[in-house]
Amino acid sequence: MKPILSWLLLGAAASLFGCASRPGQPEVAASGKEWVTESDEPEAQRRARLRIELASGYFEKGQVTVALDEVKQALVADPNYAPAHNLRGLIYLRLKEPQLAEASFLQAIKLAPRDGDSWHNLGWMHCEAGKYADAVAAFGRALQTPQYAAASRTWMSQGICQARAGQPLEAERSLLRAFELDPANPIVSYNLASLLMQRREYPRAQFYIRRLNNSELANAESLWLGVRVERKLNQLGTARQLGEQLRSRYPESQEAANYERGAFDD
């Protein structure tokens, strides 16, 4: 089974402190929940927190080495500040240093074992490495953490990972759960439609991809998938309309080139 595209860049930094990486990567987060409130915050932790807030800003802007320097300063201030280790793990992932990333995530989990974000990030790291069973286990730990606020993100990530592992039924269940929790998420809709398209469940695929393409979040990948789904259902007029949108809005895209040469079954 072909791996499912993610449709959208999910950049790791997009979910730092509260909140999409190249296609296939789900959201990750660096914030933790197992520390005292700011009003009771020790001075060392306050300095570390401020450094991590700066680091997250640099990370979002792609200034990864500067972000890492800030994280190091945070850990000098407070070596036991779990969000610093979590963000360091994300930075090492970006720098393609998986062993250092794993060590950082595990340290964050050791310091804050009920922080679902660190478990989620560890799970995605395993997924990227093709360690699918380990990934699902880590996602499960994230979903089991009390008051975990990012369950939709983790269900989505688990579904994408299960699809990569060649487990379409499990992937569908996870993505449907993500859709229940966050029906407006375009990445979930795209991946569900793509999965159902691959399984030849064209009417169901049409439901999800039409929702996306009728929104402001449609892009070249979603329009191209919509064209192919509509053609499978013999909705040629709708397919042509989507194709014209694709050609006019994204004329330089690979999807527009595929449409021009009629590569509907590639």
SSE map:
Layout: H1 43-60, H2 64-77, H3 82-94, H4 98-111, H5 116-128, H6 132-144, H7 151-164, H8 168-181, H9 186-198, H10 202-213, H11 220-232, H12 236-249, H13 254-260
Summary keywords:
266 residues; Serine Threonine Protein Phosphatase 5, Tetratricopeptide repeat; 2 domains; disordered N terminus
Molecular structure report:
With 266 residues, this protein is mostly helical. It has two domains: 12-174, Alpha Horseshoe (Serine Threonine Protein Phosphatase 5, Tetratricopeptide repeat), CATH 1.25.40.10; 200-266, no CATH class. It has 13 helices and no strands. It has helices at residues 43-60, 64-77, 82-94, 98-111, 116-128, 132-144, 151-164, 168-181, 186-198, 202-213, 220-232, 236-249, 254-260. The chain is elongated, with a radius of gyration of 20 Å. The model is unreliable at 1-36 (pLDDT under 50).
Terminus-to-terminus distance: 14 Å
Instruction: Count every beta strand, where a strand is a DSSP E run of 2 or more residues.
Output: 0
Radius of gyration: 20 Å
The domain tally reads 2
Give the biggest sheet: none
Tally of helical runs: 13
Q: What portion of the residues fall into strands of 2 or more residues?
A: under 5%
Helix/strand-derived category reads mainly alpha
CATH class placement of the largest domain: Mainly Alpha
